[in-house]
């Protein structure tokens, strides 16, 4: 009897612990049953480092562009990176976030790794130009945050880039 | 959604006292009371679906009851038809070899009596009753499919398995969970930009990589209580690959500079580095026995698939055709590796024998990416943009039939098929 009571109590407790919001709807006529479950924030989540990145860059740089499936620095990208290095050298109180991006032609997971390498080589180049590594952070977005979505080489080239965001 | 249920299972031939009472605590569980009236010995002759002489079994389904009965029959028919093992035909036509009869009635619950008759052997091979709340009619129907599949083939049915996938809208990327046929989608992770993910071997956790506050970390979601924990957090890119049968997690991390392959346990500890190269090492997946890892590397100048043992030794290159081969997935029998290969400027799903001896191209239209095997090895789920937006498709690898399981207008990608649930 005690066991059953415990089970009933548990069911009851679970029912209370969770909030369900309205089922989300699909854009199509087919009826699909589903419930959206609210997420809980774990204590670990709260400890995530909060980078003080401001989305709007304090200074606009051109993007450093890359060839398809490559992460080596092209001559035109070198010129861009030299100007970034020069600016950082004369604006000591600032930091830099490098975002590595890819076109949509590759596959998502590999592109995340490729974007990481692009951000990495750009970072290494800046360090070789005398920028302290502590001032530079980076992240890869792979093909997940494209500048443009047209399916032509012009757009794909614009998306194969390292993007620079200046932060305090 | 999450409930505790009791599953009652009794068989004729067992003493009444042997009735087992099990309490299942799992989100996919529901109240189905099964009364099977056949002893196991009645259904021991199975057809060999791997035999070259195998032909599709003509199967008919007749049903009697309220309108929901038709829906149940349709789901069962679709399930069995798509396996390529059964061939649904009209009950009145000659040639029927397996006859399924479903009698259903509805009160508070749906109750369905199912009788499966083998016309060749001239005997019943399944007599079973099912009961479930009305709103999980689909799960009840899939359970019937599982039982029919099992009594005919002797193998476990996968009609109650799930597929997780990424759904995107504008700049968001959420993790979803749906039935294998795409129905009953549920959003399970809303925070951040989630992409790479994998099932734990028992199907109770989903391990995934999510970008939050400019940081890619590896998380684990407990599917019993939807609690999320951080497994791995470090500078750089941290992408989960596959999980081994004994729950070792393979992942790629650039914590030391370049993306390299590592393994760790389910608590995010015991981290061990397996590769060391200047370039990219990513997308590691375990062989079904956990002894080997397939992964993608550009060490040869272009992305190709390599295989090494689970300790990072004895590395060899698997793919040689084309200059862009990524996203490996191991078949459940360990013999094949599905992957994405770039051909004439488009991405397609290929299958290669794990000793590189045989190669098959599975798709022809659009860009097709992120293959994942069903636990029975009959299907591969993947994403494709052949109809515009990316959506999730399933292909039967034996007969090539394909089916889209996400609706039009929904952008969905990166499917991962669950293991069988206990």
List keywords for this structure.
heterodimer; A: 168 residues; alpha+beta; 4-stranded mixed sheet; two-stranded antiparallel ribbon; 5 helices; 6 strands; B: 422 residues; mainly beta; 8-stranded mixed sheet; 4-stranded antiparallel sheet; globular; disordered N terminus
Sequence-ordered SSE layout with sheet pairings:
The complex is a heterodimer of chains A (168) and B (422).
Chain A: H1 2-17, E1 20-21, E2 36-37, H2 43-46, E3 64-65, H3 75-90, E4 95-101, H4 108-128, E5 136-142, H5 153-159, E6 161-167
Parallel strand pairs in A: 4-5
Antiparallel strand pairs in A: 1-2, 3-6, 4-6
Chain B: E1 4-11, E2 20-25, E3 34-36, E4 57-64, H1 67-82, E5 86-88, E6 98-106, E7 109-118, E8 123-133, H2 137-153, E9 162-169, E10 172-179, E11 186-189, E12 193-199, E13 205-212, E14 215-222, E15 227-232, E16 238-243, E17 249-253, E18 260-264, E19 272-273, E20 281-286, E21 292-297, E22 304-309, E23 316-317, E24 325-330, E25 336-343, E26 346-353, E27 359-361, E28 368-373, E29 379-384, E30 391-396, E31 402-404, E32 411-417
Parallel strand pairs in B: 1-3, 4-5, 4-6
Antiparallel strand pairs in B: 1-2, 3-8, 6-7, 7-8, 9-10, 9-32, 10-11, 12-13, 13-14, 14-15, 16-17, 17-18, 18-19, 20-21, 21-22, 22-23, 24-25, 25-26, 26-27, 28-29, 29-30, 30-31
Provide a count of the helices of chain A.
5
Largest sheet of chain B: 8 strands, mixed
Helix and strand run of chain A: HEEHEHEHEHE
- State the distance separating the first and last CA atoms of chain A: 64 Å
């Amino acid at each position: 009897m005690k066991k059953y009571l415990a089970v009933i109590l548990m069911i009851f407790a679970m029912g209370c612990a969770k909030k369900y919001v309205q089922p989300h709807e699909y854009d199509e006529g087919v009826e699909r049953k589903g419930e959206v479950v609210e997420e809980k924030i774990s204590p670990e989540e709260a400890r995530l480092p909060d980078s003080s990145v401001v989305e709007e860059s304090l200074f606009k740089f051109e993007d450093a562009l890359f060839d398809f499936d490559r992460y080596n620095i092209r001559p035109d990208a070198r010129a861009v990176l030299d100007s970034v290095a020069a600016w950082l050298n004369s604006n000591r109180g600032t930091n830099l976030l490098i975002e590595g991006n890819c076109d949509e032609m590759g596959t998502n997971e590999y592109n995340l790794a490729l974007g990481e390498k692009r951000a990495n080589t750009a970072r290494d180049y800046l360090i070789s130009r005398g920028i302290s590594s502590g001032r530079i952070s980076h992240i890869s977005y792979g093909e997940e945050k494209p500048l443009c979505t047209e399916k032509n080489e012009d757009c794909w080239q614009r998306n194969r880039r390292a993007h620079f965001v200046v932060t305090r | 959604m999450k409930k505790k249920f009791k599953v009652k299972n009794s068989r004729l031939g067992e003493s009444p006292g042997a009735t087992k009472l099990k309490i299942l605590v799992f989100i996919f569980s529901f109240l189905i009371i099964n009364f099977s009236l056949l002893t196991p010995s009645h259904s021991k002759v199975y057809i060999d679906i791997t035999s070259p002489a195998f032909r599709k079994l003509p199967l008919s389904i007749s049903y009697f009851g309220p309108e929901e009965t038709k829906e149940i029959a349709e789901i069962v028919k679709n399930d069995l038809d798509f396996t390529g093992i059964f061939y649904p035909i009209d009950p009145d036509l000659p040639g029927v070899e397996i006859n399924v009869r479903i009698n259903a009635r509805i009160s508070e619950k749906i109750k369905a009596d199912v009788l499966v008759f083998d016309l060749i052997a001239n005997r019943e091979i399944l007599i079973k009753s099912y009961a479930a709340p009305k709103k999980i009619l689909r799960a009840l129907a899939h359970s019937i499919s599982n039982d029919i599949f099992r009594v005919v083939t002797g193998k476990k049915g996968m009609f109650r398995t799930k597929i997780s996938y990424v759904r995107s809208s504008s700049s968001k990327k959420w993790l979803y969970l749906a039935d294998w046929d795409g129905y009953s989608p549920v959003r399970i992770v809303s925070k951040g930009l989630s992409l790479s993910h994998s099932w734990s071997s028992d199907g109770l956790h989903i391990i995934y990589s999510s970008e939050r506050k400019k940081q890619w970390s590896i998380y684990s979601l407990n599917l019993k209580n939807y609690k999320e924990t951080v497994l791995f957090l470090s500078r750089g890119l941290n992408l989960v690959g596959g999980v081994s049968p004994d729950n070792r997690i393979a992942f790629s991390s650039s914590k030391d500079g370049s993306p390299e392959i590592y393994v760790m346990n389910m608590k995010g500890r015991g981290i061990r580095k397996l590769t060391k190269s200047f370039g990219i090492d990513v997308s590691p997946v375990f062989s079904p026995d956990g002894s080997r890892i397939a992964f993608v590397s550009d060490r040869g100048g272009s992305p190709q698939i390599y295989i090494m043992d689970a300790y990072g030794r004895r590395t060899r290159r698997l793919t040689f055709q084309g200059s862009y081969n990524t996203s490996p997935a191991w078949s459940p029998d360990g013999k094949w590796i599905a992957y994405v290969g770039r051909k004439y400027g488009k991405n397609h799903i290929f299958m290669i024998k794990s000793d590189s001896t045989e190669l098959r191209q599975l798709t022809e239209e659009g860009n097709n990416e992120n293959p994942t095997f069903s636990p029975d090895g009959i299907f591969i789920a993947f994403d494709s943009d052949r109809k515009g937006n990316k959506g999730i498709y399933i292909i039967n690898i034996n007969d090539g039939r394909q089916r889209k399981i996400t609706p039009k207008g929904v952008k969905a990608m990166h499917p991962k098929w669950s293991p069988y649930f206990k």
